[in-house]
Amino acid sequence: MESQPVADNSPAVLAFDAVSKAYAAPSGEQRHVLQDVSFNAPAGRRIAIVGRSGSGKSTLLHLAAGIDAPTRGDVRVMGRSLATMSETARTTLRRDHVGLVFQFFYLMPHLSVHDNVALPALIAGDKSHRFEPRVAQLLARVGLSDRAHERVQKLSGGEMQRVAICRALLRRPNLLLADEPTGNLDDENGWRVMKLMLSLVAEEGATLIFVTHSREVSGLADEVWRLHSGLLSPHAEAEAPAVPSPS
Amino acid sequence: MKRVLIALLILGVLNPAVANDWKAAQPDYAWSFPRDHWAHAGYKTEWWYFTGHLTAEDGRRFGYQFTFFRIGVLPTAPDTDSAWTARDLIMGHAAVSDLDRNEHRFSEVIYRAVPLLGGFGAWPEPLIAWSRGPAGTPGKWRLSWNGSGFDFEMRDDAQAMSFSLSTRPVKPLVFQGPNGYSRKTQSGTGASLYYSFTRLQTSGQLSLDGQTWQVAGESWMDKEFFTSVLAPHQLGWDWFSLQLDDRREVMLFLLRREDGTTDFASGTIVHPDGSTTYIDGSAFAVTSQARWQSPRTEGVYPSRWRLSIPQEQLDLKVVVELADQENRSRLIGTLHYWEGAVKLLWDGLSVGKGYVELTGYGTSSRPAL
Amino acid sequence: MRRYFVSAMAAHLRAGGSLYLLTILGVALGVAAVLSIQIINRNAIAAFAGSVKAVSGEADLSVLGYAPSFPEDLYPRVLSTPGVQAAWPLWRAAVALSGDPESSSGQADGGMLDLIGVDFFTPVDIPWQGEPGDPAVALSQPGWVALTPLLAEQMGWRAGDAFTVSRGSRLVRLTVGALVDFHTLNPLASPKLAVMDIAQAQSLFGDAGAIHQIDVKLADGADTSAMRARLQERLGPAARVVTPEQREAQAKGLLSAFQLNLTALSLISLFVGMFLVYSSTQAALVRRRVELGLLRSLGATRRQVFALIITEVGLLGGLGAALGLPLGYGVAQANVRVVSATLSNLYLLEEITRLEMTTWLYALGIVIGVGGAVIGALLPALDVARRDTRALLSAFTLHEAVGSLAPRLFGLGVALPLTAAAWYGLHGRHWQHAGFVLAVVLLLTLPLLTPLLVRELCARIRVRGFGLGYSLKGLGVRLQTTSVAVASLAVAVSMLIGITLMIGSFRQTLSVWIGTSIQADVYIAPASWRGTGSDGGLEPHVMATVTGHPAVQAVDRLRRFHGYTGDRRITVSGVEMGLAQGLSRFPFLPGALPDPYEAVRERHGVFVGETLARKAGVWVDDVLPIHTPTGVMKFPVVAVYYDYSAGDGAVAMDLQTMTQAFGPGPVSSTALYLQRGADVGAVVAELQAALPDAPLEIRSNRRLREEVLAIFDQTFAITRLLQFMSLLIAVCGIALMLLVLAREQVAELALCRSLGAKGRQLFGVFVGKGLSMGVMGLALGSIGGVLLAGLLIYVINRAYFGWTIQPYVDWSLIAQQAATILGAAVLASLYPAFRARQTSAAALSRDDL
User: Fold this and answer.
1) Do residues C660 and C360 make contact, with C-beta atoms less than 8 angstroms apart?
2) CA distance from start to end of chain C
3) A and C: touch, per 3+ CB pairs < 8 A?
4) Residue (of C180, C217, C194) closest to C81 by Cα position
5) For the whole model, what pTM was predicted?
């Protein structure tokens, strides 16, 4: 399945509509991770989500990626409601429109730098190898052209995350979701990787939602939202107003 | 389990039911001596029974027994091409009672009567019967006619005993019953042909545990052949062969019922001149006065008798020389009987000697022979 | 710790059911393979010993002939020997049983009967069932015989029923007279023992003067070996005196090569099973890494952790053994018939009629099960126990060890076979068991080479799609898991291919050999020819009828019996060496004297079978001593011929030489060369019609060849079964590896899911992995298999059996097997692939792998 045209009347790449998520605690009680979260993330916007550990940041990203399903409410990606889609359709949607970047990079240790970046295309069944220039372009952009055929284990943490970002962007996703992308890097590397990611996203015209607990890093975003006890609110120190739409 | 076959066979000997093709003992049997000393094929059972008292040069006293049995399996030999084709079995029993040392030893053989292992001779060849010695003992057991009496020899290395004896009759052959026809039942269905040499002068060698003595003494020989003797209700017998110092001899037998009472009894008195008087059970009385229990077979045997024959003015005490003179077969598990030397007392004085055979004790089964 | 262990194990059993199940299955199959062979081996000996004990249970010594029989007049000599307590003669013959009591035709459809002629009046132990009846009948009723209740029931015979048996061409009618239950004396005694009067036996079978055995019971306290020497001295060269132990040892010796080979094959199954335990343990440990790390951080010592793992695996091994015991018994039960038929065909021993599980066998099963499991788990357990707590608790995989070890293992894998080859060249060649050492080395080498080969192969793969290349690439890193699976498959495949090649070559060689040595048109043998040391033959009137047939151009007479060279039982054959038509009967090895057929007659020499030549080390120009009734005679060896019999060997000489050395005897079987153009089928039919009642098997050339090959195939049936079991274990191994991979790679799979891979794609990747492992195992195993076949053909068979086998490859069969293996590998990957397919992208967040 190839990408489908996005409805003109819906500028939101990602929309949460009164989304709640609860897990059954071992005691049997319901633990509410997200409560009535609603927002629209318009195209091209770069949003940071901050909050304490356990505030539901990662859950929010998983819901956004269609990896997890909400207890109540609806998540829409590219205007399409995930709730009504089959697992396969969600997978296809994710493959074609969503990129993921993880705290621990999650590179395939047995693949080379190049192959790791190319993996989404391989998974998508692109056998024509038309993605090759794109891989080269991305690697050049992150400064890893000369290491394309090395095994990923030989890379430093910052380099690994750069590879992961390339992988995430390979198929030109509309939405890039990053979960603590600098969480496993030192400050200097983290800062550099973050800057690189933000400029890449800007170049690609993608929407970025990233989770971080670093105030410095969140400062780089267009908007900063705060997640607290399952409730989403605009961050006090945001340089631009980030107003969640009223539900 | 093993050996049972032999026992059953031997018991079968005494079973009148299988007597179809066999000859029965007849009162008008035509005797012919010496030929009748040899085997009589066609009768189911035959035996040559020697018992006697021997004294060595050094005064040591022995009782002995030597017997060859012919056990007919078939009236005629089957027509098979094999050296193992047999009509008879030959069984030998020999015992020595060392009367000074109170010890009794028993030896036995049993073989198919085939040229490899043993058999019966034919007149006029001197050999009457022979067999291989017991397993582990070289040589043969033999019985032969020496012209006037019998020569016989046995050897058993495992029991460390052997003897070789030669006999000569001091008194002539006597028939046990008119014309040698010896009835065993009231009705006359069981009978044997039976004669004896009641006094045989005996000499030869006897060895025990590697020591050899020259011995001499007197023996008694019984020869009997028949097809069926015991009636089904007869359990066993007490048999006496007594040699009195006054040159008389007495043979008595009593056939017992299962309850121990006497079913049939008979006897012969041999007078000093060799003449005989046949007496029936009413003419004598035998009373058991003591008992001995075998520790091995648990048979309870009489061991002392009072014997009276009023018409002969005889009133004897018969006392065993040695309590344990029980012959216990190792080859035939169920076979055991008491065969032993006795002394005769009259008012406490020794008046003679003899041998007694007691069968059917200590077991509910019938005696072997 | 113990309470922890119990509760933890229960929890793990619930959670990791399939892993544990595979461990148990691996152990169970390994135990079953080894045990089934041991059950059959032990019972084969026990069947022989059981019958020996039932017949000669009380005997301390037995006198046996060098030729089958000896003169009966030795019996009194034995009897009168000081120290003998009892002795009894036995006449024995294996006679062919005719099934139908009413028919007198010689159809040997009832198998064989071990007929014993005894003298009932010796103290021989006869276990009568019920009353034996009147022995006078046993002696006088023609053909009176006592049978075991089992046989009587089997045949539906009751007392008084008559039936027919044959020895040689002689038919004898027997009558059921009584029952003897030898099982009361020994539960393993053959039900086909029968007892009759010795005189009747000798007479009915035309054997007057001959007996086969004298059993001797010694007096209490007699010294057995001194008595043995004394008896032997008294008996001279005509007979030998042996203890029951010696008789059993002789049977064992006969079977040792056959049994050793089966045992070795079954051990391969166990070896493969141990791989399975190794990898399942490793997988379980990967799963429990954090748990173990936690235990360590809470103060558990390395020793405790190690003990925990080993105990758990030991328990699983115990469960596997518990499953393997009945399975092994079942396998043995299912195969006892063919093995038994082989033993009686090839080695002329008692048939196994009943299997008994001894305590020893139970113990063996448990030791193999628990021991095999523990050994299999040793490495992973040590590996985990050695790690420090931090490493256990942090994200890591256990794969590094093998990864960095791979070059060293490879080095070892190269050095080991080289060393072994050097050793073999220098010393090993002269040692009988060297072949097995080489085979073991070969099978050890494969797993050593595997990791590096897999790694290098996978490293060279370029990933060109999310398919096979990706599958392979993944295998390369998961070395510890992958290479174990590949190695175990390679071992199993080696065995499969090696043995297939060996059997195929052997069969081809045999069929070529049959083509040259079975040349006559018609073969006539008595129904009893297969019997144990049967000395019956074709009677003169049969020979006259057969040779008088107008189509017969030449007659090849064979007289055959068992003889002895030293303590070795050999088949001694006499044929007319001068027969013009028979010049290819013996395919010679190079080095025969010129014109061997003439030389063997003129020099009163022998042709020696290759088997015997190799075992006894007798070659052309040597002399071979053989026991004859008059003492040991030495025969010059004129030639060595290819021989594929299984016993201790064979020799052939001219009939005239045989008569001079052994005295006259009956013709055992005969072959006919027909006039040119004669219709073989018609001649066979005419001969059968001319001898309607004779208990003969009259075969055409073609039928005899077919039957020889049929016996051959039967012989190797059990081998095929073992191959199959090893393969089954290896396939389980693949399934296990993939399951392990599916578990270990949850994160990777989840990542692929998060990158948009569909379940179907993951399924494909896993099937690809299974197929890749199958291909690698097959490739490695094929190389191993060819080498193993070489070892089997050139070293092992030669050392144990003395056969020369020409290599031959049946490509279609090999291709078929390869396809089966790959198919099995794919099949094995289906379930793991299904599991992989189910992996959700959400697993990424829950599992930090």
Assistant:
1) no
2) 27
3) yes
4) C217
5) 0.74
- Token couple for C720: 């095929």
Q: Pick out chain B residues at pLDDT < 50.
A: 1-9, 11-19, 364-369
E strand map for C528-613: 552-565, 568-575, 606-609
CA distance C749 to chain A (A): 10
Contact call for B and A: 3+ CB–CB distances under 8 Å:
no
For residue range A60-84, list pLDDT tens digits in order. 888 888 878 888 899 998 888 888 8
- Count Cβ neighbours within 10 Å for each residue of C593-606 and write b for 16 or more, e otherwise: beebbebbbeebbb
Interchain contact B32–C (C-beta under 8 A):
no
Cβ contact, residue pair B132, C140, below 8 Å: no
C211-269 pLDDT tens trace: 999 999 999 888 999 999 999 999 988 888 988 888 877 777 777 777 777 777 777 77
Mean of per-residue pLDDT scores for chain C:
81
In contact, C58 and C186? CB cutoff 8 Å? no
Q: What angle do CA C345, C346, C350 make, to 5 degrees?
A: 60
Host domain of residue B54: 4-358
Q: Which residues contact B171 (CB under 8 A, 6 or more apart)?
A: B197, B198, B199, B247, B249, B270, B274
- A149: how many CB neighbours lie within 10 A of its CB? 9
Two tokens at B159? 């029991």
pLDDT tens digits for A204-247? 889 999 988 888 888 888 888 888 878 887 654 444 444 444 33
As a 3-state breakdown, chain C gives helix, strand, coil percent values, each rounded to 5, of 60, 15, 25
Burial of A192 (0-12, 13-18, 19+ CB in 10 A): middle
In DSSP terms, A48 is beta-bridged to A210, A224
Q: What token pair was written down for C448? A: 């050593």
Would you say residue B197 lies in a domain? yes
Angle at B50 between CA B48 and CA B53, to 5 degrees: 180
In chain A, the DSSP E strands lie at: 12-24, 30-42, 46-51, 72-77, 80-81, 98-101, 175-179, 207-211, 223-228, 231-234
Taking the CA of residue B197 and the nearest CA in chain C, the distance in Å comes to: 32
* Residues in a beta bridge with C669: C558
- Return the domain boundaries, chain A: 44-68+82-234
Domain ranges of chain C: 1-55+254-395, 61-242, 397-517+707-849, 518-706
Instruction: Identify which of C590, C564, C550 has the alpha carbon closest to the alpha carbon of residue C677.
Output: C550
> DSSP class of residue C821?
H
SS (H, E, C) C356-374: CCCHHHHHHHHHHHHHHHH
Helix (H) or strand (E) holding C497: helix C479-517
Tell me the sheet residues that pair with B66: B50, B94
Phi, then psi, of A219 in degrees rounded to 5: -65, -20
DSSP state letters, B206-241: EEETTEEEEEEEEEEEEEEEES----TTEEEEEEEE
What is the rounded distance in angstroms from the CA atom of residue C83 to the CA atom of residue C66?
A: 24
Coil/strand/helix, residue B268: strand
**Chain A residues with beta carbon closer than 8 angstroms to that of C470:** 122
**Which whole-number Å values give the CA distances from C667 to C452, C524, C535, C584, in the listed order?**
65, 11, 10, 21
Those residues of chain C whose CB sits closer than 8 Å to some CB in chain B are 72-73, 75-76, 79-87, 119-121, 123-128, 131-132, 134-136, 139-140, 142, 197-204, 206, 208-209, 219
CATH topology of domain A44-68+82-234: Rossmann fold (3.40.50)
SS3 (DSSP) at C500: helix
Smallest CA–CA distance from B155 into chain C, residue: C80
- Residue A141 has phi, psi (to 5 degrees) of -65, -35
3-state secondary structure of C710: helix
Q: How many domains does chain B have?
A: 1
Distance of CA A17 to the CA centre of its chain: 19
Alpha carbons C67 and C631: distance in angstroms, whole number: 11
Helices (H) and strands (E) in chain C, counts: 27, 21
